[in-house]
Each structure stands twice: as structure tokens, then as C-alpha cells.
Amino acid sequence: MAIARAICAWWTSGRGGGGSSDWFEAVSREVNADSVKAMRTELLQLITRLIQDKANANSTPEEH
Q1: Which residues of 21-59 are buried (b: 16+ CB within 10 A; e: fewer)?
Q2: Residue boundaries of the structural domains of the chain
């Protein structure tokens, strides 16, 4: 996922539109142990929040 994020960031920054920069360089520069760890933390927080949101939605009575 970190690789996909780096490639998407490279593409949206305009480099994918014929720029001289290579996507592989962007991946090599941006994807490392720290960025992967940060992404794992971010994903865990997102999953936790979604679980909590679903639990809260299921616990509130629906009004008709």
C-alpha cells in the first residue's frame, strides 16, 4: 500500500504526465521502514474508528 501511495502521489504531482522523473525513483525515495510503520499506524486508527462508528450506529435506536 505504501508503494501504491507513492506512485499515486508521483502521478498526481504531474510527474506522470510526461515528466522526466521516474516513478521508481519516487518509490525508492518515499517508501522506507518509517513510512510503512506510519501507514500501518494510520490504517489501524482508521479501522478502529470505523469499528467504533459502526458500534455507535448500531447502539442508537432508530427514530421513525
Answers
A1: eebeebbeeebeeeeeeeeeeeeeeeeeeeeeeeeeeee
A2: 1-10+31-56
pLDDT per position as a tens digit, 13-36: 887 665 557 889 989 999 999 999
pTM (2 d.p.): 0.67
How far apart, in whole angstroms, are the C-alpha atoms of residue 14 and residue 26? 12
State the Cα–Cα distance between residues 42 and 46, nearest whole angstrom. Answer: 6
Backbone angles phi, psi at 24, to 5 degrees: -65, -35
CB atoms within 10 A of CB 10: 21
